[in-house]
Amino acid sequence: MSPVFPTVREVLALDPVRRGAPRLVAGEAALDRPVRWVHVAEVPDIATLLGGGELVLTTGIGLPADDAGLRAFIGDLAQVGVSGLVVELGRRYPSEVPRVMAAAAERRGLPLVELRRATPFVRITEAVHALIVDAQLHELRATEEIHQRFTDLSVEGAGAAEVVRQAAELAGCPVVLENLSRQVLGYDPAGESAELLLDGWEQHSRRIRPTGRTAYDADSGWLVTTVGARGQDWGRLLLRWPAGGDLGAGRPVGSPPTRLTILVERAASTLALGRLIRRDAEGLERQLHRTLLTALLDHSRPVDEIALRARALGVTLDRRHLVGIMVRHRRDRTPGHPVPGEGGPAADGSGPPPATGSWPAPATPADPPAGPARLRDLAEAVGQALRETKLSGLTSPVDDQAVGVLLALPDATAEERALTAFAAALRRRHPDQPVPPGGGGVIIAAGSGVGSLREVRRSLVEARQLAEAARRDRRDLPIFRLPHVGLAGLLHLLRDEPRLQTFVERELGALLTHDAHHPREQLLGTLRAYLEQGRNKSAGAAAAHLSRPAFYERLARIGRILAVDLDSVETCLSLHVALLALDAIRTP
Fold first, then answer.
1. Do 114 and 234 belong together in one domain?
2. Which of 84, 395, 493, 519 is the most exposed place for a label (fewest CB within 10 A)?
3. Low complexity composition bias: which ranges (predicted)?
4. Whole-angstrom Cα distance, residue 314 to residue 472?
5. Measured at the alpha carbon of residue 31, what is the angle toward residues 29 and 32, in degrees to the nearest 5?
6. Omega of the bond prior to 362 within 30 degrees of 0, cis?
7. pLDDT digits (tens, 9 = 90+) for 311-323
8. How far apart are alpha carbons 328 and 396 in whole angstroms?
9. Distance (Å) of CA 573 to CA 48, 50, 259, 540, 567
C-alpha cells in the first residue's frame, strides 16, 4: 500500500514540474517528506498562514533583499514544517537563488528547488492535487476492503492464524500476535524471514512501548494495538511499518497511513470477537447443556433462568449440592500423524496448521483417535458414566479439549461417594484411564462443592484449571482435587489468566525490560538465586557463581530498578511468587 500523500521526490518527477527544468539546490536528505498540499506565495511572512506539509511555490519577487531576512524566511518555513520550497528563476533571481538561501535551507534540512524555465504554477498545483485526491480515493477503497474482509472473517468465525495472515496480506507488512507475557501466539512474516522476525522476540517486544491503546512506536517501527473485549485485555497485535524494518532508505519516516491503523484495530477486534465465539455441531439436547454450562462459566444469563431451563431438561439445580467436573485427555493432540479432518490439516492442505512441536511425532499403538472425534467419544463416555451411576447433572464439551460436568447432588455428604462412582464408571467406559506410563490417559478434575447456583462458576472454573494443571502431574489419581495441586501447579493452571500475567509484569516488568536492554547482565538470574536460597546472600552468591561483593552490588541494582526493599520478607515473597508465575507462563 502506498502512502496517502506524494513525496517531494514524486512531485519533482511530475511532467508539469519537469517542464520547468527543476534543479535541487539543498535538502536532498528530506526529499521523501510527504506533500500535503501546494501553496503559491509571494510574501515573506507566509509561514504564519501554513499548517505544515505544504510545498511552497514562489517567484521570489516579494522575498527579503538582505541575507538576514532570507535566513529568517527559510527558518520560518522549516519551523512550521513545510515539505519544500520551489523558486522559479527569471523574475527576482535571474540565474540562481542566493547562496545564503541555499545554505540556510541545507542547514535546516529543507528541500530547495530551482525552476530554470518559466512554468505555470497552476499546472503544478493541479497535478499535485489530483495525485493527492487519487491517493485519498485509493485509501478510502482500501479502508472499505479492510472493513469488508474482517467483517467476513468475523462472520465465518476465522481462527487467529487466519486473521493474522489476512492482516499481513492486506498490509504487506509482518504481523505478530502476542499475549501479555510477550509470548507469540501467531505471526505472519509477509514474505520476510520468520527466524529474523521472531529471534529474541520477548526482549525485542519489551522495548516496544507505545503510548495509548493503539499507537506507533517510531523508534522500533511497530504499530501496536491492544487485543481484548469486555474490559479484559489478553494480548497485543503488532504490525511492522515500513515493511523490511528500514526506517530510512527512501521510505516514509512519519506515522503509518491511517488505513494501517484501521487495519490493525479491525484485526484486533476480530481476534477479540473470535475468542468469544463458540461453534459446535451437536444435537439439540447437548447444545442446550452446553449453552447452560457456558452461561454459568461466562455469567451471560441470570442463574434463575438457567435453573428454569435446566429443570425443563430434567435436571434440578435448585437446592442441590453442586460440583463442577472437567474431563480431558492428558494430551491435546495425538502424537503421530493427524487424521485429515480430525484436528489437523485436511488432505488438500486446508484446515488449521499444526502447532509447532506438537506433531507429527512417532505414532504408538496406544494413541487414541485425534481431534473432534476423540472429544465426541469422551463426551459420550462421560454421559454414559452419568447414566450408569444414576447421577443427575449437565454435561457437554465446553471447549476443544474438555468435557464439563455439573453434578447436582442431594447434599454434601453424597459428594465423595458420587465422585468415586463416576470416576470408576468412566474408567470402565474409557480405556485411556488410568494414566499409562507414557503420560497419556484421561484426567478427571473436580472443583469444590457449592450450595448455590450463584457460586457454581467458581467450582467449574476451579475444575477446568485443575484439569489443565494436572496434565503436568504423573500421579495415577482417580480424581484431581485442589489439595493435590501445590503453588507451582496453581500458578501453572492460572498461567493464561491475564490478571496473573499483569501481576508478573507489575512485579518483574522493570527488571525484564532492563535485562532486555542489557542481555549480558541478566539480573533476573541473580534475583532467582537470592530468593531460591531463602534470602541467604552468601548462599545466593555461591549459587549464582559470583563473588559476594558483586552479588551484593547486583542486589542493590535490582532493588533500585524494581523500587523495592529486598530485605523485606513480604516483598521477597511477592517477587518469588512472580518468578514462579513467570516460569509457569513460559512453560508450555
1. no
2. 519
3. 347-361
4. 37
5. 105
6. no
7. 877 888 989 999 9
8. 12
9. 60, 59, 47, 16, 11
